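Contributing new complexes? Match this layout with guanosine-5'-triphosphate.
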Amino acid sequence: LFARPWTFRMSVPSLEFLPPIGPLEIAFAGRSNVGKSSLINAVLGQRGIARTSNTPGRTQELNFFAPDDTLSIVDMPGYGYAEAPKALVARWNRLIEDYLRGRVSLRRVYVLIDSRHGLKANDLETLDRLDKTAVSYQIVLTKADKLKPGEIDRRVAETLKAVARRPAAHPVVLATSSETGEGIDLLRAEIAQIAP
Ligand code: GTP
Ligand code: MG
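Output block (do not edit by hand):
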């Protein structure tokens, strides 16, 4: 799956522009700047296919990447970027919430959490929404290279404990780094299991 070339397919600014239901969709969600676009680049092995930035608010639309017409990976805008203009934040939140709630082809959401920070209030709101709509999700810790191995293990255990009783949560929490490649093969294997 990941040996194939993936291409950028489309950028969706609001829900009326979503493509018709067809390919299975796997979305990457999380707080602004958590590393969603970087992780997609690492998983696809194509540096720069998803645009990244040091400053939050880089990804502003739903960006679709695909290897063929059976599967898409969707890079999402981040939530929780308080400094962005209010109208923009409202538009992103609407897009994120509506897409995560109402898409029948959405098979899995990867909810990315910064290893250093752990689950924040707005992450928990996202998990609550996914649990309520029974959309399957898995937690992925990002930027694992920023922590010592012992600290990462503790963060994984703590996060696992926090989601253990949630109905739509995958029972494994992955620790990843887009910088070192840690955990990327495991994430690829998870995605390959969902792929048609
Ligand atoms: P938005 O689109 O703005 O919501 O951000 P995003 O979640 O897509 O984050 P992005 O991939 O643009 O990365 C944000 C910053 O974090 C960039 O400066 C990346 O270089 C950095 N970053 C991403 N992943 C890692 C990682 O695994 N390790 C380290 N050290 N830095 C990372
Ligand atoms: Mg991004």
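Reviewers usually confirm one structural detail per submission. For this one: Strands lie at 7-12, 24-30, 62-66, 71-75, 106-114, 137-142, 174-175.
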